[in-house]
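Quick illustration, no need to memorize.
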Amino acid sequence: MDLLTILVSLADDENVRVAYKKSTTGAIGSVAIGGAGSIIGLLVAGPLGVIVGGAAAGILSYTISRSPGNFRNLSEVILNDLSEKQKQRLFEQVVKAVSKMKKIRGKNVIEQIYMNKEAKIVALNTTKTYVTKTLGMTILK
């Protein structure tokens, strides 16, 4: 079993999801939508319109933020978004991180990631860090 396949499997097992950085700009857009809804409500219906317009804008913002384009499974990102060069760097970083573990030194790293729970955790955490730094994504809990 190759390392990327193991990382994809680990990410799926843990149901790790990522958000693109553009989703944080979506938060700014949500604030703008909320403000606009409140102002329109105020102009149309007075003080009560602020409440109704704000609530309607909040629902719209929530709907927009839940769109599937902003969030993806980490496994999909590993398979589809990383270039071959990035996959190679990820491979190297995971091997380096796992190799530093006392129980792993001198052993087959890929085999140990497959069999050793601590090595799996280190491999997955290294993958999360790599995706966060390289692709500018945020890991969702």
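The first helix runs from residue 3 to 13.
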